[in-house]
Amino acid sequence: MNYYTNAEKFMKIYKGHEHELGPILRDDSFTLGEIATMKKNPNVWHLPLDLVIKLGKEYVYYTGEQAAQDPDFHSVLNRIKETLSSGEDEPYASTADAYRKMLDNNLDVYVQLYEVYLQNQNNK
């Protein structure tokens, strides 16, 4: 996970939606001081590293929640998993199984797939 990249992505979402996202950040243990710092310094390169890390993680959680609520994305994700389904006689069965488990258990990978999905949807 690249914390700076994800923090920048979150700041783009946050800008203009401060009233909606402020309570979410407070629930996710952001302090009022951290939120004030975000408002003063929208450039993540000027933020303290600990805040950048929190913002990077928050982006993954926030985007993961968006992905979880997108039924079209889930149908695409299920097709990817079906493509990875393989019989035991195939030479790459263990690799396919490892990829399926990674899709099921890694939030960062899940979010990255959702970003690719959204980019593809925007290019249509």
Shape: elongated
Q: Treating each run of at least 4 consecutive H or I residues as one helix, how many helices? A: 7
Helix content: over 70%
Calculate the terminal CA-CA distance, rounded to whole Å. 28 Å
Report the portion of residues in β strands.
under 5%
Describe this structure in words.
The chain has 124 residues and is mainly α. Helices cover 76% and strands 0% of the residues. The protein has helices at 3-14, 18-27, 32-40, 49-68, 71-84, 93-105, 107-122. Helix 1 crosses helix 4 and helix 4 (49-68) packs across helix 7. The protein is elongated and about 55 Å long. The chain starts with a helix and ends with a helix. The model has no long low-confidence stretch (mean pLDDT 86).
Which properties best describe this structure?
elongated, mainly alpha, 124 residues, 7 helices
Map the helices and strands.
Layout: H1 3-14, H2 18-27, H3 32-40, H4 49-68, H5 71-84, H6 93-105, H7 107-122
Helix pairs in contact: 1-4, 4-7
